[in-house]
């Protein structure tokens, strides 16, 4: 029996295996109302039937101007919450464990009427110059995160992931490359952490379930948060009630990282965080080879693996992984599917 495909209790969740579908925006909300469509039921349903251990629904905006595009999912009103509840119920019916990623795009909210950010510097010339957030806007945006979290809980999700990666609003606060504030939300690492810390602390007043955060551990430039600083942040996040850290990189700056992309290229970042904390981590990034995933788990470089584009290409990635790993314990969805399992 492989570690990859065997069940695990982790981060306050009972997972049927260690494969995570990471959040991936589908830009399929043609009506621009942030409400899930039949596409989302089919898209996530297929991965539920494919026996993915944890499905994290794509970045879902907490405010209309927090969307990356107007085709994003949203969770700032009741209509969106009602449809999300139906989507989650349909995935639970299929036996899946389901989370959602909550996001505000900040200066990368391309279609926003007025983009906001910790400081008034734009991502690149194709993006707006964002308005620097006042303390009142900071408090309101934190409240929007809280309200969206309450709607996600009411929709019965099994976990909530705060999007702190890829250069979106929370990431913009965390980095001095995008946060030049002079007040208590800028300057020192502790001050830059304050925006998300206050959100997490408030969530923990009413939600004891599984709460994750996604971080970008490298901006691929020299003047960035050091690995040591990320380890410190991870320790603060653990102390403040985060159950798992989903470790990615990039997205803060408009640069093309000068790195060789290879399977597992982001794993060392996950492992480095893992060494500093006791909560689990997720590694992601070109982890399409089941043998590599199994090796990373066996050697404790990560606790869970996320497969993104691999699951876009192949909804039955896990069945193929079972074949490759010769894991005869893995079962496809039902008896009819067993007949398709070689
Ligand atoms: C179409 C697409 C949409 C994505 N949207 C999101 C998103 O909503 N939130 C997020 O944190 N990452 C997003 N990502 C990044 C993925 O979650 C993942 O980290 C990345 O694709 C690397 O993993 P992979 O090599 O297995 O695909 C997206 C990636 C793709 C391909």
From TrEMBL:
The cross-references to SUPFAM superfamilies, in alphabetical order and at most eight, read: FMN-linked oxidoreductases (SSF51395)
**Record's Pfam families?**
Oxidored_FMN
Query: What is the required cofactor set for this protein?
Result: FMN
Q: Which Gene3D superfamilies match?
A: Aldolase class I
Record has Transferase as a keyword: no
Q: Where is the NADH:flavin oxidoreductase/NADH oxidase N-terminal domain?
A: 4-327
Organism's domain of life?
A: Bacteria
State the UniProt keywords alphabetically: Flavoprotein, FMN, NADP, Oxidoreductase
Q: What is this protein called?
A: NADH:flavin oxidoreductase/NADH oxidase
Identify the taxonomic lineage of the organism of origin.
Bacteria, Bacillati, Bacillota, Bacilli, Lactobacillales
